[in-house]
Amino acid sequence: MLDAKIPAGPLDKKWEDYKGHVKLVNPANKRKLEIIIVGTGLAGASAAASLGELGYKVKVFCFQDSPRRAHSIAAQGGINAAKNYQNDGDSVFRLFYDTIKGGDYRAREGNVYRLADVSRNIIDQCVAQGVPFAREYGGLLSNRSFGGTQVQRTFYAAGQTGQQLLIGAYQALERQVALGNVKQYTRHEMLEVVKIDGKARGIIARDLVTGKLERHFGHAVLLCSGGYGNVFYLSTNAMGSNTTAIWKAHRQGALFGNPCFTQIHPTCIPVTGDHQSKLTLMSESLRNDGRIWVPKKQNEDRRPGEIPEEERDYYLERRYPAFGNLVPRDVASRAAKERCDAGYGVGTSKQAVYLDYADAIKRYGQIEANKRNLSNADENTIITLGKEVVKEKYGNLFDMYEKITGENPYEVPMRIYPAVHYTMGGLWVDYELMTTVPGLYALGECNFSDHGANRLGASALMQGLADGYFVIPYTIGNYLADEIRVKAIPTNHPAFEEAEKSVSERIERLMNIKGKQSVESMHKRLGKIMWDKCGMARNAQGLQEAIQEIQQLKKEFWSDIRIPGKINEFNPELDKAGRVADFIELGELMCKDALHRNESCGGHFREEHQTEEGEALRHDDEYMYVAAWQMINDHEWQLHKEPLNYDVVKPSQRSYK
């Protein structure tokens, strides 16, 4: 059942050979084929632009009022590519190796090598679109370091790389809209996949302004709807980010891969109280120059500037000398939690560590003074010059931190703590990005394929654009070449009528509960269960308790939820209710997946399975597979396993020392 369709042959030739032998659709036939794309982030916008350019008839849907509001716009630090502009030893193979190792040997070799290979093309594509990447003095594109690597391969546009890349993809998308190749549906939410004869043939979407349900046919359906981190309520995701699109596909037979593999980002602004509904990410690129530390004394109350150097514990540099502050996200997050749990945390909550730029400011200031031939510059001049350099590289991030916290990070260290960020799990897809439902594809963060148990920083943007610009234009043709004789199916087909009826009945059922509890309160309760028992650390007892608590929460939700307003009108509370209902079901599956995987790997840390030094302890002999779950009934799933074979990289205990 789980045929990954990895091409035969040497690893570095698989994608090239695939492209040379894949089926093609001629230009005249492309104009007869309709493709639906759900989501307009980097994966969705790039796929829609690319497929529209090829001549397919494309419909693209997003629940925001503009594709430019997709959450990809929030990405800050950069995008990886194996260009080796720094001449520091980078290569396609090294990017492939770092990604496999960073994912703790729980990703497919074939998919990851292809990602590393096409990464080089992404930069050229984006530069051609006018993306304003940072450049060195001589005009060459600049690179910086990110966690889990020892080379500089991350391209960036200050601290707003996602925004600039999305604008590039958005421009390409809107050009196809203007040409008539793509039809755009904003403020529309996909609420069901329509299957005919076992194949995905369309969707049911709801117009979020009028509340009207609509039927849309497609020869293929592409889901590009992002991750599901908001299952934890508090996360770095946009408030609207949800799991509904892929969860509907899962209920229609698409297997869900590795749902418990969620990433905790180490560099976020700490929680300040119960009033918060979102957390703010501070780019991992800040670890490129900032140093992370805590006081050596427990329960320290002095201000950071009052703590002398010899009383500071730069714990990442101490524990991981080879990588220092640039260890991967899962390692850095657990290390911060360990220090805070041991009583060395800082700030009023004591649930934070310092990210300090004092050394970087002095270092950059001295370099700048040398460039200006200021041989006798005093310390104040050096610091002033250094702040100017840091402002150019990270200024918008520093400004954002100051607006949120009221503290000036040029003068005092930032306080950071881990928070839910990215999800490595998602719909199971094969090498062609097709799910287990024929004709239904998943691209970008909503599939499971490329990051294993932990995503390296700056690889999300890389995967989204790789899937949309360079993978799906080839692989979808292999499927659609056999669909050219299929005429557009009228949306009065019984399958469409049945799908719309089921969506309508579910909405009416939600509205008719008329209970006492708000959707927000239910979501918050789910998030607390997930964070406490399926968060940074997990154990069997906690996960078993979480499953019971989530099942009880589901009963409560469907008997006591209160949704104001009406169905056939603009009703954000109704939209949110549907999404939270899906999150509740997903939360149960995540806990089941985490409970079944009796090992630690990447972002999945089982307290029962750790080394003497507190690192993740894998059990490759038992768990070297993708856990792909099939929904059988409410609260019931069947596990399917896709074995992971490593022919090139030999798995070993991860070490960043």
From TrEMBL:
Gene3D superfamilies: FAD/NAD(P)-binding domain, Fumarate reductase/succinate dehydrogenase flavoprotein-like, C-terminal domain, Succinate dehydrogenase/fumarate reductase flavoprotein, catalytic domain. It is an enzyme of class 1 (oxidoreductase). Its EC number is 1.3.5.1. Keywords: Cell membrane, Electron transport, FAD, Flavoprotein, Membrane, Oxidoreductase, Transport. Its cofactor is FAD. Residues 523-656 form the Fumarate reductase/succinate dehydrogenase flavoprotein-like C-terminal domain. GO terms for cellular component: plasma membrane. InterPro entries: FAD-dep_OxRdtase_2_FAD-bd, FAD/NAD-bd_sf, Fum_R/Succ_DH_flav-like_C_sf, Fum_Rdtase/Succ_DH_flav-like_C, SdhA/FrdA/AprA, Succ_DH/Fum_Rdt_flav_su, Succ_DH/fumarate_Rdtase_cat_sf. GO terms for molecular function: electron transfer activity; flavin adenine dinucleotide binding; succinate dehydrogenase (quinone) activity. Its main location: membrane. It is a peripheral membrane protein. Pfam families: FAD_binding_2, Succ_DH_flav_C. It comes from the Bacteria. Belongs to the FAD-dependent oxidoreductase 2 family. FRD/SDH subfamily. This is succinate dehydrogenase.
